[in-house]
Amino acid sequence: MKRALFALGLSALTLSACSGGLIPNGVPTASTGASRPSPDARLPEKAAKPIPSTPEATLAAPVPTGDGSTAASLGVVRGPEIGSLQVDARKATLAMDSFRTSCPGLVGRNDSSGLTQGADWVPACDAVKTWTGDAISFFAAYMDAVQVGDGKAFATGYYEPEIAGCRTRQAGCEVPIYKRPSDLIDVDLGLFSDDLKGKNIRGKVSGTKLVQYDDRAAIEGGSLTGRDLEIAYANDAIEFFFLQIQGSGRLRLPDGGVMRIGYESQNGRGYTGIGRLMKDRGLITDGSMQGIVAYLRANPEEGRKVMQENKSFVFFRELTGAGPLGAMGYPVVGEASVAVDVKFIPLGAPLWLSMDRAEPNGIWVAQDTGGAIKGANRIDTFWGAGDRARAIAGGMAARGAALIFLPKAAVTRLGL
């Protein structure tokens, strides 16, 4: 992830890759005594009960034209007319507004999916500036729907959490939130070999060698202590763990104020999904966020060790403007923005979901990316902030069909 929001769906804890954070050794856990946050700040005890829905059938998959590593090589087929799709008018309007926001970046981006060129989006982006009609008519007028590959979609959810915290360390608020260390180095491997174009690593210099950066256990053990990297502190280690997964969030301060923090960087270490790990070991049977939290709270020492097996660690910065920000650098919007794999869905493109849960159905806009969001038709839906957002995102795991909306010029060029 290159921007502020490290968009990794909570359901991906059991299925793919996320990140998290814990307290340094020697600091008492925030799950006991006065250090525990008030109930309204805690993670939801239960996921929202799914609203069932029957997804539309996918179209026949196209014959791949290449290795399947991008949408263009996997193949695309023309979808139904946009005006014939089942959509929620309110959500479609939110999506049109988010599309409008994305336009400045959209027309100037290099699309690694192979489906569009920046100039393809200009007519739609010019029109949306002054559009006064309904959102469905706008999308139908300037775009056509296509299906990438077999169109079979899997959607998880993420949200912007709010947890108890403080700007300076105090009793009951002792979990450090770090900014990016100055010795963390990003390396573009494509500068050294054409075979490595598009690949990047992070590390630090030790002597004359580039080595891996400190992992979670080392950081929690105090490797960054004394370097003036703390931008704030959290009350509860487990809640901060989940905030790291989301990549941005709000700290509710003792004086009633709010400090917003967003993703700045990550230590470059690979991710281990603790939900899958815990299920494989028989520690839990409920792989939802709520099931994981219940185990972590009931077994703090074992939970700490399990979470340390995820070596990835996220660094934050304070956010002072609109946000949280997605990979395009624009604010993501609840029930309108999604994280995608840019090799299969262009950032800034609208898309349509028809899933076996009703909540994610409708039009969204791809405005974010995430380490766990890989492959065709893999979607992470953003639900905003608050109890409802946490409850829906925490249990979101929906399957169904996906279509992407592309400019008519791009669809013509693709021969569809």
TrEMBL record:
Entry-linked Pfam families: 3D (PF06725), MltA (PF03562)
EC number: 4.2.2.n1
An individual GO BP term: peptidoglycan turnover
InterPro entries: 3D_dom, MltA, MltA_B, RlpA-like_sf
Any Gene Ontology CC annotation: outer membrane
Molecular-function annotations in GO: hydrolase activity, hydrolyzing O-glycosyl compounds; peptidoglycan lytic transglycosylase activity
Reactions catalysed, as given in the entry: Exolytic cleavage of the (1->4)-beta-glycosidic linkage between N-acetylmuramic acid (MurNAc) and N-acetylglucosamine (GlcNAc) residues in peptidoglycan, from either the reducing or the non-reducing ends of the peptidoglycan chains, with concomitant formation of a 1,6-anhydrobond in the MurNAc residue
SUPFAM superfamilies: Barwin-like endoglucanases (SSF50685)
Keywords: Cell wall biogenesis/degradation, Lyase, Signal
Record region (Disordered): 29-65
Gene3D superfamilies: Barwin-like endoglucanases, RlpA-like domain
Highest taxon above the source species: Bacteria
Cleavable signal peptide: 1-19
Annotated CDD domains: mlta_B, mltA_like_LT_A
Lytic transglycosylase MltA domain residues: 162-317
Name this polypeptide is given: peptidoglycan lytic exotransglycosylase
